[in-house]
Amino acid sequence: MEKKGQIVHTHKAPDGTEYSHKHNEGHEHKHIHQNTKQVLNRLSRASGHLESVKRMVEDGKDCSEVLIQLSAVIAALNNTGKVILKDHMEHCIVDAVESGDETAIENLTKAIDSLIK
Predict the structure, then answer these.
(1) Could you tell me which residues come within 8 angstroms of residue 87 by beta carbon, excluding any fewer than 6 positions away?
(2) DSSP letter (8 states) at residue 34
(3) Which residue from 67, 48, 71, 43 is spatially nearest to 57, judged by alpha carbons?
(4) What confidence score (pLDDT) does residue 101 get?
(5) Mean of the pLDDT values across residues 78-96?
(6) Which residue segments constitute the domains of the chain, with CATH numbers given?
(7) Do the beta carbons of residue 27 and residue 44 sit within 8 Å?
(8) In the chain, where do the E strands start and end?
(9) In whole angstroms, what is the distance from residue 11 CA to residue 25 CA?
(10) What is the pLDDT of residues 23-38, one digit of tens each?
């Protein structure tokens, strides 16, 4: 029985099985993300690269070299953000649109605004 303020979500598992569940409006839950391992690997590499940039600064390396390496870290993080955004749009936002969850769409807009500053 569906109560006022409840949202019904239907998900599709990687094997094609569909399942639905209900929760109260505003309740956040985890979605199945397809690129979690890829994102974690990218973040680990960017973190390691940032540590090496930090050592460059500590060692007094040439500023031009530091800036070039720093721009590589920023690009790596931006590209990781694109992977997360694409995954979020293909899965979480599709679920939100199908279930009428306007809050998820508003949150995506805020996240994009923060990412693109």
Answers:
(1) 33, 34, 35, 39
(2) S
(3) 67
(4) 87
(5) 89
(6) 6-27+36-115 (1.20.58.1000)
(7) no
(8) 6-12, 18-24
(9) 17
(10) 555 555 566 678 899 9
